[in-house]
Amino acid sequence: MTKIFWAFLIGGGICVIGQLLMDVARLTPAHTTCTLVVCGAILGGLGLYDPFVEFAGAGATIPISSFGNSLVKGALMEAKSTGFIGVLTGIFEITSSGISAAIIFSFIAALIFKPKG
């Protein structure tokens, strides 16, 4: 029960931060998304995002900030094993399933629902 509480609180907190960036700082949704991805990447690069995930669970893995962490994690893992070229290939290797799922589900949704035009 405690894990669910913290996941809800942390995930909601990340969403509140994103909403405040749009409402108070007047950032566009694209700028807000990029900001959260970069923050996740920085925290991942510093080794702080994984302990955050251990504590918050899905509250830290579901928001967009986790995507930035995944990019850095993949790049660092591949860089250790294959060198500089691993920085590029690692990014695609670790995030390819999520990106592929987003493309496939978006395509299916476009087939089912009539887009506004």
UniProtKB/TrEMBL annotation:
It comes from the Bacteria. The chain crosses the membrane at residues 6-25, 32-49, 84-113. The keyword Cell division does not apply. The keyword Cell inner membrane does not apply. Keywords: Membrane, Transmembrane, Transmembrane helix. InterPro entries: Spore_V_AE, SpoVA. Pfam families: SpoVAC_SpoVAEB. NCBIfam families: spore_V_AE (TIGR02839). This is SpoVA protein.
